[in-house]
Amino acid sequence: MRKPRDFDSELKALDSKARELKQAKLQQLGELVVATGADALPVDQLAGALLAAVNASDMIAREDWRQRGATFFHRQGNARGRARSRAASAAAADGDATPAGGATGAE
Prior knowledge:
This protein is 85% helix and 0% strand. It is mainly alpha-helical.
């Protein structure tokens, strides 16, 4: 016989997941504000700029904003990648130096 579904627990799990996703989105938006330097703007000015962007119907301006945003994220991704690459290179250099010294001493 099939076990009956517990709809209440499924709804609670979905609600919990929705809250987690909303919280993650809010955190990402906050991080975006800080990463772009918009946290230096007064809150009223930032809100006004965002409202203007939401209400903008000029597709040329919106496309320009999209391109600038894509460029920003591309630069940010490259900067993070370079930082990771430098950290990995430094770790590899430290790691390579230790075994090489150890191998020489063992011979």
